[in-house]
Write a structure and sequence with these properties.
Layout (H helix, E strand, L loop, with lengths): L17 H12 L3 E5 L5 H16 L3 E3 L2 H6 L4 H8 L3 E5 L5 H6 L8 E5 H5 L13 H24 L2
Parallel strand pairs: 1-2, 1-3, 3-4
């Protein structure tokens, strides 16, 4: 089954996250690559989330970014940082690429390094909840996704 394009209405918001503002302004000032991830409760989303955290820790050119502020607080510094970044890393948990599909409507697709974590780790296709998989196994798979992501980022940045 295919879902046709659709839109949703989001209630207005006043203000922004103060600590997020500082985080994003520092990232802009230091030219950091934003790293976004799926945040779903399933094993695939959890592996993507942990992998994104690992990428930001392992690669000093990267920093975690908040998809919530990007999607729902368009006047925030986090949204500005992501939208103006030359490269954005988006690690989705599976082939549905939920967050990446939204992201692709907010920024140029050519700026997105879009990762399908499940295509890299190929594990647990029949398990939903992340806590049905031992933490050590989740971390090992996330590390595999993180390392592949960093490798792809390096290849992308060295391409003409």
């Amino acid at each position: 089954m295919k879902t046709e394009n659709f839109s949703i209405n989001v209630d207005a918001v006043s203000g922004f996250c103060g600590v997020g503002e500082k985080w994003a302004k520092n990232a802009i000032e230091n030219n950091k690559t934003p790293v976004l991830s799926c945040e779903g409760p399933c094993i695939r989303g959890e592996i993507a989330r942990v992998a994104a955290n690992m990428v930001a820790k392992k690669d000093s050119s990267c920093r975690r970014a908040c998809h919530g502020e990007l999607f729902f607080v368009p006047h925030s510094s986090i949204a500005t940082w992501i939208k103006e970044s030359e490269t954005i890393i988006m690690i989705d948990g599976c082939f549905l690429k939920c967050h990446g599909r939204v992201l692709a409507n907010l920024v140029s697709d050519r700026n997105i390094l879009h990762i399908d974590a499940s295509a890299i780790h190929k594990a647990y296709p029949d398990i939903f909840l992340y806590d049905d998989v031992p933490e050590a196994d989740r971390r090992k798979l996330a590390e595999k996704v993180a390392d592949k992501t960093i490798s792809m980022l390096i290849s992308r940045s060295s391409s003409p």
